[in-house]
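Hi! If you just cloned this repository, the fastest way to understand the data is to look at a raw example. We've pasted two of them here, unedited. The first protein comes first, obviously.
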Amino acid sequence: MDPFMQAAIEQAQQGLAEGGIPIGSVIVHQGRIIGRGHNRRVQEGSVIKHGEMDAFENAGRLPAQTYREAVLYTTLSPCAMCSGAILLYGITKVVIGENQTFMGEEQLLRTRGVAVEVLQDATCVALMQGFIARQPALWNEDIGE
């Protein structure tokens, strides 16, 4: 398995272990992880701490060029908010663990020139399917339904 997707999965598992929603993300620049994150909405009572947003926050304030050269890995297809951040910071490639349990704004990303790769990783699918089955109300809250 790709070591960067594995790192994103580890972030998702950490979020689940903390009582949160199992979505993880890492931002990679020149073969090195510069930001790791997982969904912390439950843990921090946040409305915006999705996995991708947490990875951006943890990467911190970096030159725009660094983000333009980076690849974002996420265990789940990015929602409109996270896709907006991807576009805002000029990420040129996104690798998605799965989009079966939730289809985010992949088409928007593609139309704006972002390379989108979907792995349909069995671990990512199982994490989300299990969580949604156990916590449907929390999942629906996370995606704004």
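Ok, and the second one:
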Amino acid sequence: MKRRVVITGMGMITSVGTGKEEFWNNLVSGKSGIVPITRFDASELTTRIAGEVRDFDPLNYLDKKEARRMDRYTHFACAGSRLALEDAGLVSENLDPDRVGVYIGSGVGGIDTLEEQARTLINKGPNRVSPFFVPMMIANMAGAHVAINNGFKGPNLTTVSACASSTNSVGEAFRLVRDGYADIMVTGGTEAPIISLAMAGFCALKALSTRNEEPEKASRPFDKERDGFVMGEGSGILILESLDHARARGAHIYAEVAGYGATCDAYHMTASDPEGVGAAKAMELAIKDAGLLVEDVSYINAHGTSTPVGDASETIAIKRLFGEHASKIAVSSTKSMTGHLLGAAGGIELIACALAIQNGVIPPTINYEHPDEACDLDYVPNKAVQRDVNVAISNSFGFGGHNATVVVKKFEE
């Protein structure tokens, strides 16, 4: 018998705030976290802005020796996981370690370490490359450290599906709990791509906004003058728990995870299918998995990256699936404030969905100033709206054509 799965904790490290209260308050107030890059000299790049996490100190979450042996993306994962476990009241709980797993996705893993050690190799020779290079770089190490730090011995897996990584991770973690393979899953995503190599690569792709003189207005999903996405960094971690387990310990429940769908466009290595077929199918599968109808959905946290083709394609996908109901759904992109966290995006955006359900408030798409005839839905422009949200979906679409959707709904006994 399939079990019900609920969200009992959340932790996030983002450019708009650390922790639930700061993150949510800034989202609903429409505050942008996009700033000029300070982590390195970006003066030669065509894009010199990003959603940097400022004033983050890993030593607030880790001891000094441990932190030195981790990449920044792992710092974010450990910090977000600690916040989520504390929020769920699980830090001092007497848990069965074999029944607690960790699924944390990342699109690029320890690329900061990769860049640093490549420079060391070139400038100082192979004998100076750190013995910690490989275990700091590989993409599974964030989830591994979360498990090591907490003694969690259940299933542990890292999903790498570009910008769909954390949504895939949450969806697969949901299935594990639903099907009885774990009682608790620590899941979501983490990313730290604001380095010269990654930024140069995305600049070469011409994927990033070049609105350097007004960074807070650069990410403008669905706006006619959008010119590319803005890189972000951080983590979004959720605690998924079987309803029976959560009830037994009197846990606070934010929302119920109800369904998950995943597809592939099989179309192009970077471009989404302009007809939105795969994206629509992922949403359809997730809603069907939840046992719901398309008419039940009242909010979509869109992938909405602020790219000309991607936003139009997602709009087409929504209209393809929802038909006349599409015009009645609130569709917003919180990337307009946080930037695009690549493999961590889906984690923080599913958190935004759960908080929208709990608070009855839908966060806005800021910088929506010029309507685009190719994007003609209700994008909750510029200001949050108060609205009862019973069912919300979070979309993530990644390079390679990966599409993933998770459905959450208001928890009812």
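That's it. A detail worth noticing about the second one: The chain has 13 helices and 15 strands.
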